[in-house]
Amino acid sequence: MTVVRFQNVSRVYTVGDHEQRALSGVDLELEKGKMIVILGPSGAGKSTLLNLLGGLDSPTEGTVVVDGQDISRLNRDELADYRAAKVGFVFQSYNLIPTLTVRENVDLVREIAPRALDTAEMLAAVGLADHMKKFPAELSGGEQQRVSIARALAKNPEILLCDEPTGALDSETGSAVLKVLLTMARTYGKTIVVVTHNQSIARIADVVVRVKNGTVRSVEKVASPLPVEEVEW
Asked: How high is the pLDDT of residue 162?
């Protein structure tokens, strides 16, 4: 079932007298319950796609429809409600609150997510069961990234948007995180969208979207995704 539809989407940013076209005439459909990897070089438009889907930005032209709702026409308050109800985010910057413990950082999602999953279970899933009482400053960069992933998973969103989620992780931890993301897609029917430069991650995906110069160059449905264990980092 199609859960996301981009129709003739363009995004143009104006900087002084200059116009910068980040996306141009993008048409794209994403299915529910799939692991989707968006590949492309820096400046290709990957993050812009993610921001539009996440309701962090709005298109200059075209429509973005999510689960039957045209989010490109929502105002600021309506977009905030959409993000709270539908979307989880994993960014390259961890966005953890330094004065809260690991557990408290993940527990925060309960304030906006009535269907939130168990905090301890999500932290255990990313290998941080023994770190719940620590503060972010006591963790490595990779551990902080795993806290942000656990927080996003605990929100129990319909769509999880991940910007280079394994970029700061070693191969063993990265594999563990990818297994959790795949489980969320294939067992719990969540739509997982991963933006990455890492071609290897594309080998475990159900769908690979290649982006270049602000356009979608190809959409490949992967007939036989590799198990995470077989991916070389």
From this structure: 92
Give per-residue pLDDT as tens, 131-169.
999 999 999 888 898 899 899 989 999 999 999 888 777
d(CA 206, CA 213): 24
- Name the pairing type of β-strands 61-66 and 2-15: antiparallel
The whole-model pTM stands at: 0.89
Handedness of CA 210, 144, 176, 87 (dihedral sign): negative
Longest dimension (CA), the chain: 53
Per the document, the length of the chain is: 233
Taking CA atoms, 203 is separated from 107, 200, 207, in Å, by 33, 6, 9
Paired with 13 in beta bridges are 20
pLDDT digits (tens, 9 = 90+) for 173-196: 888 888 888 988 988 889 999 998
Go through the domains of the chain in sequence order and give each one's CATH number: 32-51+75-228 (3.40.50.300)
Q: Are strands 159-163 and 87-90 parallel, antiparallel or unpaired?
A: parallel
Report whether 134 contacts 144 (CB < 8 A): no
In this predicted structure, what is the pLDDT of residue 140?
87
**Partner residues linked to 207 by β-bridges:** 36, 221
Alpha-carbon distance values, 211 to 60, 83, 163, 183, 198 (Å): 18, 24, 14, 26, 14
How many CB atoms are closer than 10 A to CB 22?
A: 21
In 16-158, at which residue ranges do the beta strands (DSSP E only) sit? 18-31, 35-39, 61-66, 69-70, 87-90
CA distance 194 to 208: 10
Residue with tokens 């982006």: 211
